[in-house]
Amino acid sequence: MFYDMHVHTSASDGVLPVAEVLRQACRMGLPGIAITDHDTVEGLPAAWSCLETEQLDLELISGIELNTEVEDGEIHILGYFVDFQCRQLLKDLELIKAARFERAQRMVARLRDMGYAITFEQVQKLAQKDLIARPHVAMALMEKGYVFSIREAFNKYIGRGRPAYVPRYRFTPEKAIDLIHAAGGISVLAHPGLLRQPKLVAQILDMGVEGLEVFYPEHTVQETGYFIALAEQRGILVTGGSDFHGNPGETWRNRLGYCGVNPDYMAKIRTYYSELNLKRQ
């Protein structure tokens, strides 16, 4: 079975509470998962509490997925083994959360101006937590029957270049990598096959990320082979995950453990992290 290193919960834009995600992973027999919610670590204390209280037989990696932007598009940086009590991390995440809140308000206002009767209160309710993301706006459109899926909402209304799109808070990949390192973590470039400009992969690797998310549901066989070779060439870690969100109707995003890394790759990740900790001491 795979170690699923890319998992979301209701702490960000996932559907299931973190405890239920852990239980589901155990029922499936997964050896381990990384909780990597967007721009938040708020679900991690509950995850560790659940793991200990229920004595779940599961390896848990404290993670995060930081959303960043460059001129040519959006870049997501995964962080593994982060200290979710790190002051600098929490301070920066509060700024991002406030910016997300304002962005969602502006998107809802644009949609209402276009004649779509959704409210910000509706979006907040769907978000469950303080952190609001575009999928929550998409869910509000689905709830009202304006779209059939989150993907359709992005493609028609709130994706980049669409009529209700609002640019995100300017957070660079370099800052994300530095923040993950400040929190004691390992930085990884998420789903490189989704980048619109292939040249961006090399640019981000040059910034100092330590791993590449090679195994990903939307990567083709050819892309996976290319990224394995690239990781070996660069001497960086190979990672992978399902990008699980638990969204009904989103086939692969609704399948925990659909993608990930085998025990050999996971052992290399652990070894790298252990050696990194020794160097930091």
Written account of the structure:
By secondary structure, the protein is α/β, with parallel strands linked by helices. The protein folds into two domains: 3-85 and 172-280, TIM Barrel, CATH 3.20.20; 93-158, DNA polymerase, domain 1, CATH 1.10.150.650. 44% of the residues lie in helices and 15% in strands. It has ten helices and seven strands. The protein has helices at residues 18-28, 44-53, 87-113, 120-127, 134-143, 150-158, 173-182, 199-206, 221-234, 263-280; strands at residues 3-7, 32-35, 59-70, 73-80, 186-189, 211-215, 237-240. The protein has a seven-stranded mixed β-sheet with strand order 1-2-3-4-5-6-7. The longest helix has 27 residues, at 87-113. The radius of gyration is 18 Å and the shape is globular.
Secondary-structure topology with pairs:
Blueprint: E1 3-7, H1 18-28, E2 32-35, H2 44-53, E3 59-70, E4 73-80, H3 87-113, H4 120-127, H5 134-143, H6 150-158, H7 173-182, E5 186-189, H8 199-206, E6 211-215, H9 221-234, E7 237-240, H10 263-280
Parallel strand pairs: 1-2, 2-3, 5-6, 6-7
Antiparallel strand pairs: 3-4, 4-5
Helix pairs in contact: 4-5, 5-6
